[in-house]
Design goal:
The chain has 234 residues and is of the alpha+beta class. It is built from five helices and eight strands; from the N terminus they run H-E-E-H-H-H-H-E-E-E-E-E-E. Strand 6 and strand 7 (220-223) form a beta hairpin. The longest helix has 73 residues, at 43-115.
């Protein structure tokens, strides 16, 4: 009853006062209780969206290329730094090796200076050492053996010999050693041959006589021994 009254009142209104029903731009489709809405955007706008999507697709490879270029630059920088590091490491190793060689050379120089500081002094003593041998060789062997009749001469010989032994022992503590190479093989580096004589009972090249003993200071020859060498068969 109320609905009929409202309908009659509405129909009685002038046309200008009646509510206008605006038809929908798109029909509304009902499917299984769900509402499917159609796009109200014009087709032109949809075309612009497609173009923008294409532009996005085109822009994406450009961004990837930029990233790749940046990665390449970083790779080059890394390779350059790695090369510089290798060069610095090589220079450091060379510097360490040079320093170690310098240390060894310096130590050797200092040690040689210590070992051969007495070389000039030792050479000056050689003549005095030779005088001991000359004094001892001046006493005939038969008189030395006959101590009863030549006691004073025998005692003098013994005293000179004892002094020589003590003197040579003291010098040997400082590296100065007497070289008396009897029955040794001749070595031109440490011996000086003054004459050669055949000796049937000795091997050729053997030293059978020492004319003047040699001396070495810390294994360095400061005077070669003058010797007689057994001559070989020609």
């Amino acid at each position: 009853m109320l609905r009929r009254v409202i309908s009659q009142a509405t129909a009685a209104r002038p046309a200008a006062l009646r509510p206008r029903v605006v038809p929908s731009a798109r029909p509304v489709a009902f499917r299984m209780g769900a509402v499917r809405l159609y796009s109200e955007k014009p087709a032109a706008e949809n075309g612009e969206g497609a173009a923008a999507a294409e532009e996005t697709k085109e822009a994406k490879p450009a961004e990837e290329e930029a990233v790749e270029d940046e990665a390449t630059q970083w790779k080059k920088k890394y390779e350059a730094k790695d090369k510089d590091l290798a060069q610095m490491r090589e220079r450091y190793q060379r510097a360490v090796a040079d320093f170690q060689n310098l240390q060894k050379s310096t130590e050797k120089t200092v040690q040689n200076a210590k070992d051969f500081a007495l070389q000039k002094f030792a050479k000056d003593l050689l003549e005095s050492l030779d005088n001991f041998d000359r004094a001892l060789s001046a006493v005939p062997e038969e008189k030395r053996a006959d101590a009863d009749n030549h006691k004073e001469l025998a005692d003098l010989y013994a005293g000179i010999k004892m002094t020589q032994d003590v003197f040579e022992k003291t010098l040997s503590k400082h590296g100065l050693v007497k070289v008396n190479p009897v029955d040794e093989k001749f070595d031109p580096n440490v011996h000086e041959a003054t004459f050669e004589i055949p000796q049937p009972d000795k091997e050729p090249g053997t030293i059978f006589h020492v004319q003047q003993p040699g001396y070495s200071l810390n294994n360095r020859v400061i005077r070669a021994a003058k010797v007689g060498v057994v001559k070989g068969d020609e």
